[in-house]
Each structure stands twice: as C-alpha cells, then as structure tokens.
Amino acid sequence: MNGDKFVQQIAAMHRHIATLQQRLDRLPWEYGQPADTRLLAAEAFEEFRATLEELQVAEEELRQQNQELAATHQMLEAERQRYQDLFEFAPDGYLVTDVKGIIREANRAVAVLLNLSQQSLVGKPLLNFVPQSERRAFGSQLTQLTKQDSPQEWEVQLQPRQESRQRQQSFDAALTVAVVRDGEKPITLRWMLRDITARKRAEAVLLRTKLAEAAKQELEKETIQRQRIESELRKQALHDALTGLPNRALFMDRLEHAIAYGKRHEDYLFAVLFLDLDRFKLINDSLGHTWGDKLLITVAGKLQACLRPTDTVARLGADEFTILLEGVEDGSDVIRVAERLQAELALPLNLGGQEVLTTASIGIALSVTGYDQPADLLRDADIAMYQAKARGPARYEIFNTDLHARAVGRLQVETELRWAIERQEFRVHYQPVVSLTTGRITGFEALVRWQHPDRGLIFPGEFIPVAEESGLILLIDQWVLREACRQTQQWQEQFPQNPPLTINVNLCTQQFLHPDLIQQINQTLQKTGLDARNLNLEITENVIMKDTQPTTTMAQLRALDVKLCIDDFGTGYSSLSRLHCL
C-alpha cells in the first residue's frame, strides 16, 4: 500500500465516523425506544468497529512500509557513501562537469593533480587547466563530446595551478569522458583523468632504447660490413686479382718472417724459387689475353698442387711466380721440388679445348746466404732465373756469387749502353760481300761495334744480349739502319757500278715485330736516298717463329722492294715447312 492511498483511506474513515457520530446524535437514547432505533444504533457501532479494525490494519501496513522505506533509505545511503568513497579516494582523478566543461564535482586525486582544493575547483572551467597552445583543439573536442554515444578517450597536456613566481609545469594526462543524458538531452559529463607522465617517460625511454638497439644493430651491421670490406681490401691488397695467389707484398712479408725465424734457429733452412713461364708472350699474343689469363690461372693451380700447405706461392706479375719453401732439409729437397714443378708444367694443358704446351725457367736462392733483407733473396732468385732462361727453356739454376757478379756487370753494361746511345759511341763496321763468280765486292754487311771510352772496342756478343733484354736494341738497330743506308748511298755515289752496291742490315726480333717497322724503313730510305732494292734485311729464324703473321710483314717489305734474308738458319726451332710459308 502506497502512502497517498493510505492517507485517502484514513480521511474516508474520518468522514465515515463523523457521519455515524451525527446520526447517533440525532437518535433519542432514553430507555424504552422502539426496536428499529436500537437496531440502527447497533449497525452504526458495528460499522464503527469494522472501520477501526481497518484503521488498525492500515496502521500496521503503514508501519511495515515505513520500516521498508527506512531500510531502503539506509541501503541507498550506504551505496551513496560507497560511491562517494570510491569517487573521493580513487587513485585516478574523477570530475563531473556540465556540458560546457564547468567543474561541478572533483575528487581528491584531481585536486592533487591540479594543485587546487576540491572546493576551489568547483565552478572553474576545465579549459583553464589546458595550455594556451592546446585550448582551441581541446574546445573543439569538448564541443563534439555531446554528439558521441560511447565514452571518448584522448591525451592532452594539463597545467596545474602554480604560485605566481613559479613556472607552470604541465603534465601528460589521459582523459576518458562519458556523457550522462536525461533521455536524449545531455546534462553532465563524467571525466576520468590519469597522469601518464611516468608512462610517457617510460615510453620515451623504451623508444630511445629501441632506437638505441636499432642503432646498435645498424652499427653492428655496419661494423660487420666494414670488417668484411676491410678483409676484402686486405685480401685485394695482399693477393693477386687474377689467380687469387698472394702478391709481392704478402710474399715479401712471409719471406721477412722466414728470415727472422732463421736468425733465431740456426738449423732452419728455406729457399726462394723465382719461376718464369717460357714462351708465354707467344701464347698470349697468338691465342689472346683471355687464354693467356686462363693459362696463368691453370699454372697457379698446378703450382699450389705441387707444394705443401706450409709453402707459399705468389704471383709477382705477368708470367712471374715466386715460391717460398720453408723448413727444407738441404738443397736436394729444393731441387726435387723444382724438378717436380717443371715436370708438372711440361704436361699439355687443355684450355677450353685448346691444347697448350709451356715450360718454366726457375731460379733458386737458398737461405744460407745469410741476408737480412727479403729483397736480396728475391733478387738472387731472379738473377738465377734469368741465367736458367739464357741456357734454354725448362731449366733451373741455383744462385751463386758469380751469378750476382754477372748480374751487376749486366746492370753496369745497361747503364753504360744508355750513355753510349746518347754520346754516339757506336760504330758500324762493314764486312764485304764478295761474288764467288766474279770475285768482286757486291755489297757489305753492317756490323755494329761499341767504342767504349775506357774499355775500347766491344764486340756485339758482350752488349747485344743486354740491349735486347733492356729494350735498348730498338734504338741501336734504328741508328745502325740509318748509318748503314747513309754510308752505302755515299759509296754508291763515289764508286758507281752496275749493279750498285747493296747493304745487309741485321734486325732483332723486337725491331722486326715493331708495328712502325715499315714506316721507319721507308723514312730512312727517303732521308738517305738509298734505293730500296739495294737494302737487304737479315733476321734469324727465331724472329719468324715469334711473329704470328710473318707473311703480312713480308708482303709490306716486298712492296718496298726490300729483300729479306734468313740468318743462321738451322740453329733455331723452325722448319723447312715454316720457311716455305714465307
């Protein structure tokens, strides 16, 4: 029973009782009244009694309802207090504002964060605690809140109130906002405010850590890449690009270590081998540089296969290789290695279907010389190699002091040859060519001599090999050709005869293979005035063997009417069939 109905019922009972009272007042109460009057009174009292009972029942119901209301009120008060406690003592800040952001209620956490008492916060716009630079954006978001049905979250900078002399320090805050509505109408905003400065710092630290880790990984990658590049550069700096063998720098370093080790251990012996391929230039010129490179790579593999892992084989350049044999017992060990190398290299090589034959000249220098510098041992091995090559292909030679003396002498001759060319110390001697039929002189052969200022007249055998090796022979041959043609033309003018005198001039291999040979001969003939038909050029058969296209040069010489003679035929390796091709 609700309270309003109960009040109405009580009022109705009062009216009913009043009516009964009036009726009773109008009745005569003397004894002896008629029976219907008594009956009426009895009915009235019965109704009164029933009404009183109803009133008692209603009163009991009211009492129970009051008890229920009191219990409900107590429960609601407890819930309100619990909510207030949660609101008040929550670790996060809680705010209640109107839809314009005016603070209506704030808990302690908010008061601490914003540095104002709870009472002071009430009535202040939340916008006041937003930095000036962010207020426009915050106001726009606040306006849009009432249009959202679900709670909204965003992060913002908040500035707590500071003393006037203190600089305002803002902090990062995470906001969660929910709209409270009365039907469709928004009435309040409930805010949860959390200081996320520590989280932001942790995120910043984590970000810096990740960036540092990424930078560390990148640095490690760069370090590995740099080490790889440095290793590759070291390898390139110390190894031959074509064969992959150690180069001169690495070989000299290992040789230096071997010398130092030998100084500390008297019984330690080692040897240096200087190896040069025979006829490599012919192979390179005839088959091409590609096949020449393949030959060098194949030779490098053969050399490595013949040596121990402790030995070092290096390529110095072109077709020159050096070998360091460490820990040998005596010279016989070194000789056996040299013979094994020559035997292996003498085997036919198959280069892409092309069979190639090559040999090697080897110079050997033993550590017993007691040198301190690696260059001295390498020099001795080089000198011995040239001595071996001078004796013919596929030879080896062990260095001795006589070889060194001869090498020094050759160097002295080369130096003096350069001065001799500049000082015009050469002379041409003319050997007559006599006709066996008539007994008359038909011409001359030009023979070069060196008129040394100190040693006197030097014959070609002493200086021509050095001139050929050094390349000075080109200058000497050109001078001899000019001088011989000039002198012959002069004799023809002084002693005219029919047929005119001829001149035979020797051409070395380098001169005959020179690309400007025809041009040089033509210019010499024009300058001296000598008829080309009176010039005979003498070449050895070795020149023909080394020229890959001798018929071309021959045709050009025939076009000039210059005759060609083969000198010392049969002393070389050519054949009659080869001669027939000319």
Alpha-carbon distance between the termini?
A: 145 Å
Secondary structure class reads: alpha+beta
- Main sheet overview: 6 strands, mixed
| Average pLDDT level | 84
Oligomeric category: single chain
- The counted number of beta strands is 18
Number of helices: 19
Contiguous low-pLDDT stretches (5 residues minimum) are none
Helix content: 40-55%
DSSP strand (E) fraction?
15-25%
Keywords, separated by commas or semicolons:
rod-shaped; 20% strand; six-stranded mixed β-sheet; 582 residues; 53% helix; single chain; 19 helices; alpha+beta; five-stranded antiparallel β-sheet
Q: Would you spell out the secondary-structure blueprint of this structure?
A:
Layout: H1 3-26, H2 35-89, E1 93-98, E2 103-106, H3 108-114, H4 118-121, H5 135-145, E3 152-158, E4 171-182, E5 185-195, H6 197-238, H7 248-264, E6 270-278, H8 280-287, H9 289-306, E7 312-317, E8 320-326, H10 331-345, E9 349-351, E10 354-356, E11 359-366, H11 374-390, E12 396-398, H12 401-423, E13 426-434, E14 441-452, E15 456-458, H13 460-470, H14 473-494, E16 502-506, H15 509-512, H16 517-528, E17 535-540, H17 541-546, H18 550-559, E18 563-567, H19 576-580
Parallel strand pairs: 11-12, 14-16, 16-17, 17-18
Antiparallel strand pairs: 1-2, 1-5, 3-4, 4-5, 6-8, 6-11, 7-8, 9-10, 13-14, 14-15
Helix pairs in contact: 1-2, 8-9, 9-10, 12-13, 14-16
